[in-house]
Amino acid sequence: MKKRAIISFSLLLIILVATLVLAVGGGGGGDPDTNSNPEEIQATTITQIADCEAPTMLRERVRCRITARASTSSIEESCRVLSSEKRTACIALQNRASPCYDETASDKALCLRRNAGLGAGQLNRFAAEDRREYAALLMYELQERIEKKHEQGQLTDDESAQLITSLIEIKQSLLKGEPIADVRVKMTSFKQAYLEAMSQ
């Protein structure tokens, strides 16, 4: 049974890596109107972030941030559903891993593995929780690619919000320790929608 779970998780990571390789686009992020007064941008962004925390539904918070072009929130969405202790550890992991996304592809992978408690070698020899954290960290790049497509006008607010919400729900499932079979179903559904959207 344990061997089967390890194989299932390895298959999930293969699907994830295949999605990363097949995906179109690059890293994400972009400043709002760079010709505007920086103080005005900061004041506007703070107001928009506060407003985006109000909705109770995940998809609505995500959509609000997309339309407001506010990339931060008071708490990482994938960490919100965790217990208080795990939420703190999750946020710390996200913060530690953040600089990794600016690295080259091979350095990025090593940096993310290090932050998730993984060293070099086969993934199946590491603790399941560490492998789940690593998979969740890999998904952040997919979110950036969706945001970039949106900024380029190639995805609508609703398309982007739906894709990012699905991605966050997968990360939440991984971090909560839900059965890999359930995570795989969500990942397969997301992969199909993601590839269709990114090929537009």
How would you spell out the order of helices and strands?
Answer: HHHHHHHH
Q: What are the low-pLDDT stretches, counting only 5+ consecutive residues below 50? A: 17-48
Supply the number of helical segments.
8
Q: What's the average pLDDT?
A: 76
**How far is it from the N-terminal to the C-terminal residue, by CA?**
41 Å
Q: What features would you describe in this structure?
A:
With 200 residues, the protein is an all-alpha fold. It has a domain at 33-74. The chain has 8 helices and no strands. The longest helix is centred in the C-terminal third of the chain and has 24 residues, at 128-151. Residues 17-48 have low confidence and may be disordered.
Task: Output the keywords.
200 residues, mainly alpha
List the SSEs and their pairings:
Elements (H helix, E strand, L loop, with lengths): L1 H21 L15 H15 L5 H11 L15 H14 L7 H11 L12 H24 L5 H20 L3 H19 L2
Helix pairs in contact: 1-6, 1-8, 2-3, 3-7, 6-7, 7-8
Short description:
The protein is an all-alpha fold and 200 residues long. Helix content is 68%, strand content 0%.
